[in-house]
User: Fold this.
Amino acid sequence: MDRLDNTIRPYAWGSPTAIPHLLGTEPTGEPQAEMWMGAHPGAPSRTDRGTLVEVIDADPEKELGPAAVAKFGPRLPFLLKILAAGAPLSLQVHPDLEQAKEGYADEERRGIPVDAPHRNYKDANHKPELICALTEFDGLCGFRDPLAAAGLLDDLGVDSLKPYVDLLHAHPEDAALREVLTAILTADPEEMSRTVAEAAAACTRLGGAYAPYADIAHHYPGDPGVLAAMLLNHVRLQPGEALYLGAGVPHAYLNGLGVEIMANSDNVLRCGLTPKHVDVPELLRIVRFRPSDPGVLRPEASPDGEELYETPIDEFRLSRYVLPEAGSAHDLTRATPQILLCTAGSVRAGEHDLTPGRSVFVPAGEKAEVSGTGTLFRATVVA
Assistant:
């Protein structure tokens, strides 16, 4: 197995302290938002044999296994991250596989450069994802019941929100949600900025359930995404709890440290809380306008100590082991590729000693015995 040397991305929303604290390093004073583990071409992990992209390209079947190559092609189909949100991320949604293929082909035909700021589809893949909390973790996930959203907006006492409140009382529910989100994102920017400022002041005054939206407005003053965020469920994960985010589900991470895994894609359509491009017509094509429960996941334990986070897709499979005794060993050998990540304590993986934030890549079929006292996350695929 290969010890991984991983890139930390300094996005502006990142916490300056959470990842350094996990790694036991000194903060630099700059935001440290994400640490990437995998073979994404934008920031592949490094090994003694070269980057993980180079290692896999040299012999895909040996590194990934025949079954994974047959199912997903000669590439690692997931990207594992440690994510540290010190401020809200953009409100966003991801396409399903068919939508991604169609959108990518269309933008390729139109000759839009892949790095153009107004391009929506960087690849032809979908991007389901899972976030597992390492600390208390706040996020937004899926639409509230429209009547609940109407009550939340109405209680702010902002006159310019009354039309949205009325729309949310209409039927059917999906049409009501679509109309309101469309109205918010296409409103006159100056009028919307004033409405958001009034709503933010009311959220600050009311506190309680409104506190997350006051904080969002503090980071994104005047942004229509503040009101769009109030249409969504607010959820607070406790350590070990997770959220699965499928295609078409609007979401945003607000604050906290977590382990994130996703299909290896860059396809994001933004709804707000960002200075980046918002393509309203394409966004409305992708979003699934139906209220839903956030669906907090808790891991299912098996007799061998593996705690699995069940998801409906095959590109990734995330589980964890909480190892209570230094003397006990677990055989994690699989016929598929794995990344093992330590998040607490000290874990021995093969010949490697892993402390929090350290990880290894295990080629398909390679012996993977782990022991120690700590928490180990295991990322692989279903093939």
About this structure: The CA atoms of residues 47 and 192 lie 49 Å apart. The longest helix spans residues 189-206.
